[in-house]
Amino acid sequence: MTDRIIELKDVRKSYGQVYALGGVDLHVDKAEVVGLVGDNGAGKSTLIKILAGAVRPTSGQILVHGQPVSNWSAAKSREAGIETVFQDRALAVQQTITRNIFMGRELTGALGFLKVAEQHEEARKLMKEIGFTSKVFSPNSIVGQLSGGERQGVAIARAIYNQSELIILDEPTTALSLTETAKVFHFVRQARAAGRAVLFIGHNIHHVYDIAERFVVLDRGRVALQITKAELGSAEALIKFMEDIAHPAEAGAELFAQGVPS
Amino acid sequence: MSDAANEGAKATAKALDASAARRLAEGRHADQSPFRRFLRDNRPAIGSLAVFVVMLLLFFIGNPTVFSQWSIYRAVLQGLPVVLFAVVPLVFVVTVGEIDLSFPATMGMAGWAFALVIQAGYDPFLGIAAAVVVGLLLGFIVGWLVVYANLSSLIATLGMNFMLRGLILIQTQGKSIAMVTLPQTAVYKIFAGDIFGIPAQFLWALVFIVICAFLYNRHRFGARVHVTGDNPDAAQQMGINIKRVRLQTYVFVGLGSAFAGVFAILINFTWWPTAGDGYLLPVLASVFVGGTAPWGGVGTILGSAIGSLTVSFIQTGVVGVGLSGFYVQFFYGLIIILSLLGHRWNQIRYR
């Protein structure tokens, strides 16, 4: 059996009377890239926050490596090897790449003084691991000098540090140019090649289709479809499916048959 | 990984190399040369040093005989440490994105504690301990008001400055405390004596600057001060207790102000109820003349120390050149504005 990093079973979240998630089943295995798509209000953000431990589900079960976990929290999410890169990336742009990577978990020696050389070397290795091949930047470069894609790379490098198994990327290509998006894809592929799993959330279906191997479509708080790339065939099929669930009246509904509507 | 994915990866890698080459050609140079990095990291400090050297040169040309005597520099070095002990911790507060205007009153309060202990006949070392405790406590209170009571740092610290000074005035009825026996004590010899013609307090200030520079650049505390000032939301997301970091910077200013208050007494052997009041504007000006950015996230200990030197030299310099004291304020303003313009041009604000 494949190694399930995390599995959600019938997870629900309600804010008062409003259901943000109405029973979601989702799992991410080792070294796979899963694309999570869905319209605004489909429950993507809530789902990410639950995975990151920032929000606790109203009901449902969370399993880490097959073991049910109680009192799910941000700390437990990190413990389980899950790192979330939120949309705003959470970078301090006037600081060096190294300082951003080690933000909040600096490598320190005697009396809390930084191990500068070690941090520099670790940062260099991380940048190499995610394919930050650009020769013009070193770990001492200021993040503000980097392009959007490269900044995303720093955020991913930081997520990889601490041996995280699953990296959740919340709309990492939004507002990025074509080449910058290519960079982010490059980083994601490198992370996957290094054995990490990636949950890739995006609005641009073409982007998500390009990078992911398996897709989860959310619709009004439920999983409308779970499908592999091979089964799907093309990005157009995915787009069509999403248009169909958004406008059921005009539905061609071919894909409903393949999918697993809950 | 599938072949297709491999192809994709190779193509992007190639594109990345191309963009790297282009950037090199455009002159966005690498930060790998240690010399360049030194220049980059110390740009504001080098800028403020340049301002100081130019100013000194102008004074020297204005009156070569006066400015080739050591005594005029010695006079500045005697008073400078008091400023330095307040300026350097203030750089931490400004870097974390706040301001503290209450340090003059803290200097007065801590100095008062020192004076009272000596007046009561105890050892001056105990007086220093009392001053430090008072400084830390006041720093904590001011910091708590800003950080946990969520008051605006500008207004709250200004209010605390007035309130603490008011307490001193009410309690002492405006009377000063003279400590005539102080020059005979060990504390005076150690902290304010004369070492090879250099005032001891200046050497202590240098030690303090070096320690603070390491704290600022090479310590976890400094790293967290930087990222908290740069992007508090990010720092919090990454698990940094930003409120505690902010509070710590205020407590640190309290400590520095206590030292400043004690050194002010060691120079004059007298504590005045107004002790510290005159330092508010020169100290603030020094922080920014030195090249610490007013928007938080970046700053320089070394630069601000040099800034203190510049600001402290203005008065002596203007009078030494032979101009009347009426020119002093004008030159204060001129140097501040020119420095800020220089740093503005010298510094890029990344967003």
Secondary-structure map with pairings?
The complex is a heterodimer of chains A (262) and B (351).
Chain A: E1 4-15, E2 18-29, E3 33-38, H1 44-52, E4 59-64, E5 67-68, H2 74-79, E6 82-85, H3 97-101, H4 116-129, H5 148-160, E7 166-170, H6 178-193, E8 197-201, H7 205-211, E9 214-219, E10 222-228, H8 229-232, H9 235-246, H10 254-258
Parallel strand pairs in A: 3-8, 3-9, 6-7, 7-8
Antiparallel strand pairs in A: 1-2, 1-4, 4-5, 9-10
Helix pairs in contact in A: 4-5, 5-6, 7-9
Chain B: H1 3-26, H2 34-41, H3 43-62, H4 64-67, H5 70-95, H6 103-119, H7 124-147, H8 153-172, E1 177-178, H9 186-192, E2 194-195, E3 198-199, H10 200-218, H11 220-230, H12 232-237, H13 242-268, E4 270-271, H14 280-289, H15 301-321, H16 328-346
Antiparallel strand pairs in B: 1-4, 2-3
According to DSSP, the number of beta strands of chain A is 10
| Spatial shape of chain B | globular
**Unreliable runs of chain B:** 24-29
Helix percentage of chain B? over 70%
Looking at the structure, the CATH topology of chain B is ABC transporter involved in vitamin B12 uptake, BtuC
State the end-to-end distance of chain B. 37 Å
Number of helices of chain A: 10
Q: Structural class of the helices, strands and pairings of chain B?
A: mainly alpha
Largest pleated sheet of chain A? 6 strands, mixed
Arrangement of strands in the largest sheet of chain B: 1-4
Q: Return Rg of chain B in Å.
A: 23 Å
Distance between the termini of chain A: 24 Å
Quaternary state of this entry equals heterodimer
